[in-house]
Amino acid sequence: MKAAAAELVFIPYPGMGHLVSTVEMAKQLIGRDHRLSITVLMMKTPFEKSKVASTTQSLLLKAAEDRLNFVELPQDDEAAAAVAELRSKNAGNFMLEFVNMNKHHVRDHVTKMMVSTESGRLAGFVIDMFCTPMMDVAAEFGLPTYAFLTSNCAFLGLIFHLDTLSRTLDVTELKDSDAELEVPVFVNPVPAKVLPSIALHKEGGSSFMLGVAKRMRETKGIMVNTFEELESYAVKRLAEDDMVPPIYPVGPVLHLVKDKKEEDEEVIQIMRWLDDQPPSSVVFLCFGSKGSFDGEQVREIAQALEQSKHRFLWSLRQPPPKGKIEMPSEYQDLSQVLPEGFLEHTAEIGKVIGWSPQVAVLSHKAVGGFVSHCGWNSTLESLWCGVPMATWPMYAEQQMNAFQLVRELGLTVDIKLDYNRDTRYSSTEPKLVTADEIENGIRRLMEKGDKSTTEGIKQKVKEMSEKSKVAIKEGGSSYNSIGRFIEDVIINVHSS
Prior knowledge:
Elements (H helix, E strand, L loop, with lengths): L5 E6 L4 H17 L3 E7 L6 H15 L4 E5 L4 H12 L5 H7 L2 H13 L5 E7 L6 H7 L4 E5 L3 H13 L14 E2 L8 E2 L13 H13 L4 E3 L7 H8 L7 E3 L15 H11 L6 E5 L8 H14 L2 E5 L26 H4 L4 E4 L4 H5 L4 E6 L3 H10 L3 E3 L6 H11 L3 E3 L20 H12 L8 H17 L5 H19 L1
Parallel strand pairs: 1-2, 1-4, 2-3, 4-5, 5-8, 8-9, 10-11, 10-13, 11-12, 13-14, 14-15
Antiparallel strand pairs: 6-7
């Protein structure tokens, strides 16, 4: 096999929301330019092992090509145990320690690549925002570092602003305050209550995020999973900031290929049920790979759905045991958690499921609304499919995403903006969202007619759906941005 002219080393963070879109981005790059090859270095986590392993295996089988290679890095059991212990104690710096323990594995593999005749000339690292310690390894080899941000430009601008603020203010003091911040990438003042919990976490989380912001400024350029038409204001403001490296909006980067799991009998039953529903009649409730609720909140959701009388498809997951940081699991018996009689009363209009094939569901003509945790991948999928959302954020930067979608962009209905179940960085129990609040949000999301308050939102979502598809076509804004990134990488190789 002839070596490509330039080889990039991708280092994704192994969380689901990071891993999948990073692999899709790598596939797009090699598909665009024959001069590029990419090696993806996969770190093994000491937690969420089975989920990451199965997803990694699926990605390897589907994505491996001549110029796209995957390498699973070894795991040191002793170091892994130490990181797992930090995570179990909710220590804010566990991600930093996890990446640091993999630096020598990356160094060893890149050393082998440097002497290999099959590798092209190394053009640099492309890291996840949580992998900034790997910039030190790139520098040892004299290589530039680029970043691929699986979130959006508003979030990037926010962490840059918090970094600036931190020079004169302890940003952790904003926690639970009623303060509002003037953030350059937002038109409206941003309430402190929607800031990511990790950024305000006193026991290491805040210093970790501020460190990420500082290192991201040092990169050669940042690809962002967004598109100019969606975040035009934030993209413009970042481009005007001399302290920010070049920004390349390259999205939406989505995994739209059917997974093997979607061939399971349970999934087939879900799609058949949707086939039997009228167009745009079903509200879909799904809260991400980590999303789950306690019994009291589940009962409020159930009551809201029954009262609303709207057709529904509800992805309901069992939370991990109290004090355990694990992924949600499937209920063996839904009667354990749902109100008595709920399944019988709603049998004609609703279906309660476990894991959901989210893209397949959002793509179905029967789905007319999406009650979502506002994870960025889910947001892009919903916009791509033209399905309006109601916001119910859970963790990470989702509260900020919800604020942006409702207040800045006018693309969603709100159920809540500041709901937070991020137990790693917040000890405060979230306030119960009542059945009336949920029902009101569902009714606003699903109501129809020219005089409905959400008709304008639905039209904007439809238009944004079209723009998202145009952005990645030849001549589109993201297509051109990817081209600029590739040319910059090649130029930097030749000038080094």
